[in-house]
Write a structure and sequence with these properties.
The chain is an all-alpha fold. Helices cover 58% and strands 0% of the residues. The termini are far apart.
Length: 171
């Protein structure tokens, strides 16, 4: 039964193998909660500038960690301070960097799909503020630990740490 069947020749090791290319792209670009918060905050502010007064009482443009979003936030904050009454198309016209224009348009589009924008905006503002406070507390503790011979106002650092610890953070 096996003698009559024709067997296919086995490919020899010396035969050329198809070339396999592997894509080496950027590292994981999955956004974390901080990225998501920054994107939603900026996007909603671009679409609904009426919330800027309340947001800027809690956050400053320097709270944004991504360089492009920080630049966009800085331009947005400046525009609101000096011009006020932001109209998205006019604001986009003031941006001289095409990358920032694209980012603003992308964030605006993403935010337009967010249900109940006001609730989402202030949820993420609160989350980002909470994270900034935690980071500030860690910096204060590290400064106190590493103070050594540096002229650091240890009493002021201790007060800030105590204030930070007294705030209830349920998360």
């Amino acid at each position: 039964r096996f003698k009559n069947s024709q067997t296919k020749p086995i490919r020899s090791v010396t035969q050329a193998r198809p070339e396999v290319t592997t894509f080496v792209g950027p590292k994981s670009t999955r956004p974390n909660s901080r990225d998501r918060a920054e994107r939603i905050i900026l996007g909603i502010l671009l679409n609904e500038p009426k919330f800027w007064q309340r947001v800027q009482q809690t956050l400053d443009w320097q709270a944004f960690t991504d360089d492009a979003r920080r630049q966009l936030a800085e331009r947005y904050w400046d525009y609101q301070r000096h011009e006020g009454g932001l109209v998205l198309s006019e604001f986009l016209g003031t941006l001289d960097d095409h990358g920032l224009v694209e980012l603003a348009a992308e964030l605006s589009t993403e935010a337009s799909a967010v249900p109940d924008a006001e609730t989402m905006l202030f949820h993420w503002v609160e989350e980002l503020d909470r994270e900034l406070n935690r980071m500030s507390g860690k910096k204060d503790i590290n400064a106190l630990k590493g103070a050594g011979e540096e002229a650091v106002d240890e009493i002021e650092l201790l007060r800030r740490i105590q204030t930070q610890a007294s705030r209830s953070d349920l998360k």
